[in-house]
Amino acid sequence: MSSIGPEVVHIVSKCTVKPQCIIKETPKEFNLTPWDLSFLSAQPIQKGLLFAKTPSLSDGENPINSMIKIIEQLKNSLSLILGHFYPLSGRLSTRKQDDPPSYTIFLDCGDSQGAEFIYAIAENVTVANILNPLNVPPIVRSFFALNGSINHDGHTEPLLAIQVTELDDGYFVGCSFNHVVGDGTSFWHFFSTWAEICRTKGNVESISPLPPITKRWFSEEEQQQEVYTGFNLPFSHHDEFIERSIASSPLSKRIFHFSAQSIAQLKSKANSEACTNKISSLQALSALVWRSVTRVLGVHEEQETACRLLVNDRLRLSPPLSIDYFGCCAGGVTGITTSRELLRHELGWAAWLLHEAVASRSDDKVRQWLNNWQKNPSSLPVRRVPGQPLVSIGSSPRFDMYGCEFGWGKAIAVRSGASVNRPVNICPISGIRFRVFEIL
Fold first, then answer.
1. Nearest to residue 355, comparing CAs of 435, 281, 292, 293?
2. pLDDT beyond 80 at 367
């Protein structure tokens, strides 16, 4: 499998898909929130599902004709659903003026430029070639579009790019989704709704997920303004605030599987050691990863080490935002301690540290972060203390990834692209490099 690389993926066709029908009273422009703008330097969300071909798909039909029908069905359903997820069909735009000075980035959907749709073939590649190797094969990176882009590039590049790659015995549906437009919750809301429309052959009326709420949330003070034109950023050019990752050799990816039983045991162990019942499965698993990475890196016992988790701020606001709010509403919480304290104590101690960090993300804390960001705007990558080991936990076990059915049966695997939004950590002693741990 090591001989298989990106060169075996051939693009067969590429086109633009526009909304068939736009929901009435949909605005042409969307002002962006601090949540949205903080992701300008980050890379798009890249997630995809691997499916196996089944005999029922073709029903004895010529395989080429069968694939043509599948591609057309995917494009038609995408066109239908873009009318509901209208922000994905636009582009980012910057409005500047000198007198009075202003610099505003917004989401422009006036021309509805549409999403990109790519059909590709991975020759002589099977489902087993993807699943069997110990490390995720590099070819998976070629199953996604917009590689090497950052979200600010959405000024000229599509905000949504779909690539359907046909394998010898399967399909991979890869989605590259601009992180300024939405977070993981919004990503899977879109993906699952698109899959349902495809599965029901365009029956928009039977959508089980609720339609997205595309109106951006702003504080009460901002909403009371008669004319609100978005945040005036204290810049004159994007070079003053946009950062791009320095190119480096691709990192190897490995998937670790934890059974439901092992997760339950881990959660029980953490709660028992911390004398509580409040530690979640994710917090227990994150603590295990944090302690393991810190130990492997050989972090000096007096050095601080941190574990950062992305959390959904929708339900932390008061009143809470709907889970169907379509946009970025993700904030970060961090547990910090010294290597000695982390490794001297048990799993439950570390898990409780993370639990407290998550629990402290209250309405007051969210609004404080929003206010502070407006006073001192910044964008990802996340700033961290130089030399401080950082483990960052992304995604969520609550995302119903395997519930996305296009009519081909359940997905057999979830994979991510090359894009990772958090920094790389390098251990100078062991040479180990790691990025984000994603919960798939």
1. 281
2. yes
